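re: ur question from yesterday

yeah so i grabbed the chain u mentioned. its 807 aa long if i counted rite. heres the sequnce exactly as i have it in my notes:
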Amino acid sequence: MDVSEVTAGRVEQAGELLEHVLAELSGGEDEREVLTRAAAVVADLVDADVVAVCEGGHVHGGVGLGGQVLPERGLARVVRDGCGTFAVPGLGRVRAVVVPVPDLPGVRVVVGRAGDTAVDPAQLRVVQLVTRLLGLVVLARHGRERERWLRQQDARGAAERTRLQQALAQREQVLTTSVRFQRAVAGRRPLPELLLQIAASSSELLDSRPVSLVLADPRSQMRMRVVAAVGDPAIEPERALGAAAELAGFGVAVGGAGGPAAAAVHINGRGVGALVVETGGEPLDAVGATVLRAFAEHASTALSHADTVRAVEAASTDSLTNLPNRPTLLRHLEVALRASAADGLGTAVLFVDLDGFKAINDSLGHAAGDEVLGRVARRLRRCLRGDDFAARLGGDEFAVVVRAHSPEGAAQRLAQRVCAELTAPVEVDGRPVRVGASIGLAVADGQVGAPELLRRADSAMYRAKERGRPTATGEGPMRGTVVVFEPGMQDADALRRQLEEDLLRAVQQREFELLYQPVVRLADGAVVGVEALLRWRHPTRGLLEPGAFLEGAERSPAVGELWRWVLRTACARAALWRRQVPVLALTVNLSVQHALSRSGADDVLRALAASGLEPGSLVLDVPVQLLRADPDVVAARLAGLRATGARVVLDDFAGAVAGPSLAPLRRLPVDGLKLDRSLVAELDGPDGARALVSVRTLCELGAALDLGVVAEGVERAEQVRLLQEAGCSLAQGLLLGAPRPAEEVPAALEEGAAGPPPEVPELPDVPEVPEVPGGRAVGAGPVAAPAPEPVRVVPPRDVRRLLGGVG
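ran it thru and got these structure tokens back, copy pasting raw so excuse formatting
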């Protein structure tokens, strides 16, 4: 290369690149973090999808490698061959090149992209530059550790020389630790972390002796308490408090004669505590006293700094997670958007919402929920690059601002890291819990401000939440879903928000009503129960079923009040009808959130008390998706619901006998199962034999576990015969009675009064009706041969004759 061709601009760019890479690599706390940072730097500089730092078959660090299971075999093969392809979960096949790390024998950096796009020669030179700097940084760290080890091992010299060398090493460590601590203070690390770092660092420099930091607590009239302690065993709290009290807020006590050493901690010249170290009965030497005094001063600095900035931080920081709050994020985002014109970097926003958090809050309590949010915030910080900016928006919502030359690619890679971090189990009160992450991504286009860009990311997040919604069986672990904003999403978002507002208004203006569908005993056709079905008489959209409004508004605060209204209203009606049919049971549907709610059992008790309904006549219908939550929590909540005296049944139970959640039925406090309507529909269809086997097996399982079985969606006479043949005792559906207003229920109960089945062996001649109430065509759609009987609206009293010939 001709040196004369090198311009000042290129030299400046190269210098900035070197400075950036060195700053990123040198910022790692340990060697593993240095290697991980190197992978992130390479990924950002060459826009790679996957970067891994490998040694043989072991992966030391990397980004974009998918979930918890690393593709180690594929990486080992690519490292062996020098290039090639391998599979990465979530990305598919990745085409990769391998770059050795100079000065680190056996260490290789694998750089890959999804699809057929390869790393070009110019980008390969950038990777080689990063790997050379990586080798230098790691060797420098090894050299310092080796030098310190040699100094510590050189005990063959004169005693004075050894003492001086040790003192020098200690003072050097004090200086290094002090510089690191000052950086932490300047970086506004949380005060509890700083205080624990002070105790740990001083213990390390004082031969790993136990250390405690004692401070006055302003929340308890300035009474002293231990706020940080390290060492095994730790200093007894009474012993540490006593040493701090003897110091009286001034100077240093070197200990000895059975007492620990201590150094005073101050805020603006006022003594507020002490740093206490156990000496084992021997006083500290001059170097030890210096170390103790220095770290007591660090504690004073941290407290004074925190006291100075507390008012500012309170206005800009979320108190629970110590992340910036929404106003601070919007200010930062505005600055980032303005800076784009100057530095050429694009801006993207990630809107992160936790899946499953409400269930944790409801089932384990708000304290557990707060702990989960704190853990999530710390994991989120670990995913950030140097210039990324994360904030808590409120509740279980977070946001991250990403700036890069290719903002969408950088944000996608960051989103995958966030999903991998957040979906790992979190331990709360000794038990693992899981949350998922729905992430919306929006990229600035130069035409919108900070609030609108955040709204776009919010709209994309709701689409991610819909795509990541669990299946009907509730199978699979929590996982992350990422969706990039598209223009049409805002229309759907506006409709969802309008729906939430309408729902809240509808509760206040009593636009909801209940219909009741009969539950028939197949043995004699008697109506032995009714199921309350919610309907919304919308002023412009007409009569809506729950699927048209509840799923899109599950976050609305009106949903909880709506469910309580359903309970109160249905229980009051059923209490009146039981005078007519004393054995009548009332079924009320619950959502997963309602069933896991800590207040669910209390709501049931209040509804029973207000209506005077016999508790045993209330049946609480819970969806099978409930079983994907924590098994202990599910069992506890269902036991609480049963403790009210009500019965609990699992709805939409899987038709496949080998399906999920059969084993837990033995342990779950439930009283019955509901056969899914799709399984009932198959009984007289082309797969009828298989469906009949499944129904019979489920009925036998229910009998073995003393669980009642109810079939729903019964629409044809042949289905009734097959259900009774399989051993099912209760059923409901259009054939046995359509949902009807409360005013029509007494007549249906009279029509379905219990009585002995007449001895009529043949099927009665019931006239066919071309339509069922509500205008739905009867027998419409293709049918398989042999064709099932069309729907006949059969009054419950005729079910007795219908089944007379079934034996």
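noticed a couple things. DSSP finds 23 helices and 29 strands in the chain. also The radius of gyration is 35 Å.
anyway ttyl
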